[in-house]
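Troubleshooting log. The previous structure file for this entry was overwritten by mistake, so regenerating from the original sequence record. Sequence copied from the archived sheet and checked twice against the printout by T.R.
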Amino acid sequence: LERAMTAVEPVVSSVGADDHDRPTPCPGFDLAALLAHVVGGLRGFGDVGEGLPLRFDLDPDVRVEPVAVEYRKAADRLLAAFARPGVAERTYAMPWGDTTGQQLLGFELIELVVHGWDICRSLGRALVVDADIVEATLRGAQMWVDDSARTPQLFGPEVSSNPEAPVLERLV
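Regenerated output below.
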């Protein structure tokens, strides 16, 4: 997860105010809304790691708040929360059902890599992330994203892909 955060950070940091209204592959999200969603997700899972309930109202106003700074703060906070002994091993009551801390970290990995790709796509760039991170992300998605996690706040319906396609394409 930390390596994925590091890979996505330069992409987040490269977005300027003139990019905010760009369309993204995510229905209903322009680039500003997608950036806010990414940071809000980090904040939300950081809350859970600190023993607070998961909230879906933590997206910053990236048109006002410096998104690169907020991304780094939220990423560092999430990593620190789940690095404490026993936090990743605990089971948490989530809106979609009981979920381990490791699964939550896996969900965040999926969010970062896939939305990192979405941001890059919006900017006309390619996401640069190590293949082993993408492989781990895909394995996590295959293990943990089932019908119980397919809520409007988390994951949409599964889309079929060519099994011979590159791993990032299959993940997305």
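The CA atoms of residues 41 and 108 lie 7 Å apart. Archived copy saved in two places this time.
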